[in-house]
Specification:
Helices cover 40% and strands 21% of the residues. It is α/β, with parallel strands linked by helices. InterPro entries: OPRT (IPR023031), Or_phspho_trans_dom (IPR004467), PRTase-like (IPR029057), PRTase_dom (IPR000836).
């Protein structure tokens, strides 16, 4: 679920502005999952642009307050959402923790880094939602640690059906600033993509696991 259409449009605008979105239909990217993709979204680049990172920080923070009230802490998903999660926590004057994909194999062997107590509440901050697997892995670790997850807020989602199913299955509420549909609308409007590229990107999004550039 996106916050609203105006925010989705603005988010698409700023992501395209700083080239956080990269298109390469002729030489597709390969994701960690093995999926081939004509598009790649790297939201970490927004941290290098103060006005844009401030927009994301404040928009996320204000939504968290409206939707959930103030949780006991903000939890970022490592590594992509550590930066923006910390900025959101700072804006709300809340403690910040982050969740690794797995527990460390040395030292204190933590998966959750930072101080939080059992029974406390968090809102999870994520940068990007694809299948939702890594994001929900963080939720699982928090719940197993006795922490209540009030919901998740992310910058962008590809809107795959599999991610919607995964979030519903785990009973996690997700809100995002922007989504794939709004991104394509903005990209076409600003001539970042052609109508032919729009068709290809729409086709890929409907069945990403089977898509082939050839």
């Amino acid at each position: 679920m996106i916050f609203n259409k105006d925010i989705a449009k603005k988010t698409a605008e700023v992501l395209l502005q700083v080239n956080a979105i990269k298109l390469s239909p002729k030489a597709p990217f390969t994701w960690a999952s093995g999926w081939k993709s004509p598009i790649y979204c790297d939201n970490r680049i927004i941290l290098s642009f103060p006005p844009i990172r401030n927009y994301v920080r404040e928009t996320m923070a204000k939504h968290i307050e409206r939707q959930y009230g103030k949780p006991d802490a903000i939890a970022g998903v490592a590594t992509g959402a550590i930066g923006i999660g910390m900025l959101v926590a700072e804006y709300l004057n809340l403690p910040f923790i982050y969740v690794r994909p797995d527990a460390k194999g040395h030292g204190r062997k933590n998966q959750i880094e930072g101080f939080i107590e059992k029974g406390q509440t968090v809102v999870v901050v994520e940068d990007l939602i694809s299948t939702g697997k890594s994001s929900l892995n963080a939720v699982k670790a928090l719940r197993e640690g006795g922490i209540t997850v009030k919901g998740m807020v992310a910058i962008f989602t590809y809107g795959f059906e599999i991610s919607k199913e995964n979030f519903e299955k785990e009973n996690v509420t997700l809100h995002t600033l922007g989504n794939y549909e709004s991104l394509l609308e903005q990209a076409l409007q600003t001539k970042y993509i052609t109508k032919q590229e729009l068709e290809l990107l729409t086709e890929w999004n409907s069945n990403p696991s089977e898509w082939n550039a050839i």
